Amino acid sequence: MADKHGDFVWYELMTPDPDAAQAFYGDMLCWQFEEAGFNGQDYRSFSAGDAQIGGILKLTPPMIEHGGQPSWVGYIRVDDVPETVGKVRDAGGHVFMEGGEVPDVGPFAMLADPQGAPFYVIDDRSGQPSHAFSKHEPKVGTCAWNELITADPDAADAFYTTQFGWTKGDAMEMGPMGTYQMYEHGDYGLGAIMQKPDEIPASLWAFYFRAPDIDEALEKATAGGAQIVNGPMEIPGGDHVFQGVDPQGALFSIIGSKGA
């Protein structure tokens, strides 16, 4: 099925050490890697079986000098990149980069919502549907959930529903942490928006990638040098999740089932 405006279609890790990141994530999530650099950049794509998931971009010293830091950023499919850039700017968002073009794919831009959470938009003209996000059936290695942790959930709701056509789904009350508001896009659950806790310094997106077994993933993450900051904990539906900071400093999120 063709991707539509508002779908997450690609996930990118920006890191100062792609080799270390590849070793850390590859075994834990059953990813295979392939060199895909262009314009002299160190860029490698990764996949789970025949599903292309995303890429790893090396943060160079000039990128770091201009504020780049280890992080995961998602790409959202849009029908018209320049039009979306204009609407985001008018809505109080930020434009970090525009006018870019991915060879054989299409134009893209790097933006941020009004609270500062970064994301990409891309007009994928390749004709190949994305399988990076599991819309209906769980698949190891793909993203299972997109979660925005933000300083202003109400403002974020207004921004994303207007820009990308997402609609509110179920919600869970989490006491002092406020409401965990879930969102749908067409016929599938896309993710959620929640209040940012004080210990997280900035608004950001978290992407939950599916591991074969949550306990094995936790062991591999810990052995690989990650700092576990939350979980593992059970979530509705029976899966378990945990979050950590990888050895290069990027926040990551893992979802999976417990082995028998």
Automatic annotation (TrEMBL):
Residues 7-124, 142-257 form the VOC domain. Gene3D superfamilies: 2,3-Dihydroxybiphenyl 1,2-Dioxygenase, domain 1. It comes from the Bacteria. It holds the Pfam family Glyoxalase. InterPro entries: Anthracycline_SecMetBiosynth (IPR052164), Glyas_Bleomycin-R_OHBP_Dase (IPR029068), Glyas_Fos-R_dOase_dom (IPR004360), VOC_core (IPR037523). This is VOC domain-containing protein. It comes from Erythrobacter litoralis (strain HTCC2594).
